Every structure is written in structure tokens, then in C-alpha cells.
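Weekly structure sync - notes
Attendees: PM, LS, DV (DV joined late)
Agenda: review two folding runs queued last week.

Item 1: First target. Sequence and C-alpha cells pasted below for the record.
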Amino acid sequence: MVTQKAGVPSGWSTPIGDYRLHLLGIGRSVATVRLRVDWVRRFARAVEVGPWEVGTADVIEWSAGHLWARDTRRSALQSIAGFYSWASESREVGVDPARIPSVRASAPAPRPADDGAVMRGRSSSDWRVRLAVRLASELGLRRGEVARVRGSDLVRDLRGWSLIVHGKGGKARIVPLAADLALEVERRGPGWLFPGADAGHVSPEWIGRLVGRALPSGVTMHALRHRFATRAYERTGDLVAVQRILGHESPQTTLRYLAIADETLRAVVEAVA
């Protein structure tokens, strides 16, 4: 039995615990499970009745009562819809997940790190920072993917080196990498590149904080990923290839990562003038 936080009304603890186990069982990350379950708990405390006494209108009213940012509202409603979609497979529920309003993700402006930030990270006295910065800025890896790199993930064939990247949702992809970066990974041995207490490796949050302290204020590991996406697209013009390397399911997601320089836009216009 999973122990729930205090304050959840009667009748919610067991289904919330079962839903948490379901999410873990289908391979959702610990961070995703924590987020989804926390939203369900917050909803439970707000409605103050059992989960099977709630209707779709209650979900909409709960959402409407908060001045959340778009992405916050989207996360909340997706979490509640997911809970009732799971529950509806084994019992009748009053909430119809299909009738919970969907909220489109906001389109934040791309924020690629500049050359100075990358050089600062690569000049760190901590080899872990230097290597993590290279993996994020040269391969476009997410912080969670950096945390999960093993030396044994290196693959070499006649065309050069590649890295098996363990992405979101347990999905793996193969990304080519430069020989000098491959050798940096290889020299750390076949095990976890960044060993720690989170399933044998450091957590994404831990590696993110470590690298963030070495970068200029406001620059994150995700900004290094944005930098890779922007540079890769500018130099190749191949959106599909960039999408595959980043591990995005849709090219529309990749487009949100691209900060196209004014000079590039001007060159496009001049090319057809």
C-alpha cells in the first residue's frame, strides 16, 4: 500500500495509490508520476467528495476557479483526464475524460544558449560539468538523457561513433557523435557516466543544478538543447533530421526550439527577390 499525503478526502487514497502504480508500471518517469499524482491529490482536496461522486462539470469548475498560466492549466486537466481514463477501464465514473477541455501548449520563444555560455560550461574545473555541457550542446540531449548515459551505450561502426540515448517514455534513439566526445565518454568506463542514488545514476534535477551553477545566470541545460537545435537546422536545413536527433514525435515541437537569426530571414527574402 502506498502512503498518501495527509488531507486527501476519504475514498481517494486507494485509487490514487493504484493510479501511481499504474503510471510506474507503464514506464512513466518518476517526475511525471509525481506531477500527475500531485494534481489528482490537489483536485481531491478541492472537491472534498469521493472520486466516484465527481462529475465532468466539477472538473471544469475547479479549473475555471484558478488563474493559472496556460501550461499549468493544461498539465492539471491532462492529469485529471488521465486519472479518470484509467479508472473508467474498471468501473463506471462520473467524469468523462473526453469532455474535459483540452488546452493547447503555449509556444515559448526559443532561448538557445550563446557561445559564451557554452565556453563557460566547457571551461569548468569539474569534468562532469564539461562533459554534460558537451552532451547537451553538441547532441541536444535532455538533462534526463544526460543523467542516464552509460559508457556501454557507445556504438562504433565503419561510419564512426554513435550513442544510444535513453529518452522520454523509455524510448531509445541512436545519435551520432564526434570521435573526441566518444572517447571522453569511453574513458569513464562502461557504467553510468554520472553515478548516483537515482536508479544507479544521478537524477535529472541533480545534473541540471550542477550544470546550471556553472553557466551564466538564467541559462539552463535546456537552453543548450535549444542551441543545438538552432545550429543544426541553420547548417543543414533538414528539420526531420533535427527532429529525429532531438527525439521529438512531431516536427512542430522541433520548430518551437528554433531561433532563426535575422540574417537568415533576410537571406530567404533576398533569395526570391
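Item 2: Second target, run right after the first with the same settings.
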Amino acid sequence: MTIIYNKSIVSSNNTSTELLNNDVSFNGVGESVTRFETITVNIVSDVSGSISVQFGQSALNLDVKITDTYIASGSYSKTFRVHAPFFRIVYYNGNTTQTTFRLQCVFNTGDGNDNVIKLDSTNYDAFGRVRVSNPYTLFQVSHNTGLRHHVITSRTVDDGSYTWNRNESSVDMDVSTGNGSQVTRQARPYIIYQPGKSLLIMCTGVLNAGSNDVVSKSEIGLFDDYNGIYFSHKNGVFINLRSYVTGSVVNTSIPQSEWNLDVMDGTGRSGPKNY
């Protein structure tokens, strides 16, 4: 097995040390586990009880239930495979009030063993092949020397504007409060897909910096009016897929809460929040 990457995260919604009275249960909160492979459940208590490890298609519909028992004063640690996109745990205390209780659920990218580690998905290309060669750059642009009009075309509508920021080696794009105000900066060359060769896209930007994200929308990525994939920010952050295969433009927007590898809320492999 190739060993490159592993990460485990303790669930705050399904972990507890609050003592339970007799015949009372701890009910965890359903949360997404799509970017994990296994869940390790650790229990210590002075009273016997039972657990229900639950999976489902949403946080409120957890139809797959795996039950197990806990024997008082024992050390319980078991790892369960993820069976569906959402998970929670329910712990049922026995007929005596607890004086000791520690319940912990740990989400794992691997199988829960320290010596078995999963490849980070960014090490694979779009066809599931491990990236083993140095990347070949098809297009690159930076703004450390100006607006780069020879490789970037700019378009403004209704008082939209753009300004080179020398100190930050960036371009500030601004719109007015008028309806329809717009500014677009787009690469002149097209990055054409070559069959059997995946594309790796990296871009840097600050979306809706200091603006009202209820009425303003920012977009960044590899896209035009007909096709592409890009991030957008308006009433939240989205990944968008745009396709013209049917002869008309079809946009599919995926909200941040449904991202399946890293929702960028501070709990994923990237670490810091995206805002």
C-alpha cells in the first residue's frame, strides 16, 4: 500500500463528557462525513450501556443503524466504515446514574490505524491516476508588473472598474451600486482540454472583499459564458459547473455545505476557514 496522507478529526457534535442519569441517552448531531472513510468510537463509563451508530442521506434521515453494547468500566474502541454521507451516534445509559463518562467519535481519512494512510486526493488526476510527473504549465499570469493587457482582456459595464494594486501585485475590481454594474477580466488564450489529459487549475483571489454579498457576486475559475468550473460568492460560497453540451447553458451550483472533500470551515484538511 502506498502511504502518503492521513488525518483524523474529533467530532465536536458527537463527543461528550456530560454525565447521564439512569435510562437517559446522549443524542449526537448529524453531520457530513463524505470526506472520511471510517469513524472510531471510544467510550469509558462506570455504567453499562449501548450505542447506535447511525448513517443516512441527510442529517435528519439516518436510516442505517449499527447497534453495540458497552460493558461498565471497560475500555471500548471500535472503528466503523462510513456507510452514507451523514452520521451521528446515540448512547443509551443503563439503569444507574453515571459518575464517569467519556464518549468520543473520531473521523478518519484512512481505516483508523496509525500505520495505514490514505493518499490525498490531490495526488490523483481526474482519471484516478497518481500524479508522478512534474506539472506542465499551459498558462500562467501574475500582476506584479501591471494589468498585463497582452494576455488579459477586460470589460466593464455601468461604472464597473479595475485598478492595478502595485503593493499587493493584484488587480482590484469594483462595481457601483447601480443594477447591472459589472467588471470582467479574462485570459485571452483558451485552455483547450486534451482527451486523456486532466487539467489542474490553481487561482488566487479575494471574493466580495468588503462588499455586500447579498447583491454583489464574485466569480473566479476556469470558465466562460458557455463552459467551465469556478467558485462564486453571493449569499454564500459555491462551486459551479457550467456546460453547453445540450445546446443551451446549464449551470449547476454546489453550496459550500455540500462539498465532499473539504468544506473549508476549519475542520477539513486545509485547516483555516476561507473567510
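Discussion on item 2: Confidence is low (pLDDT under 50) at residues 1-5.
Action: LS to circulate a short write-up before next sync.
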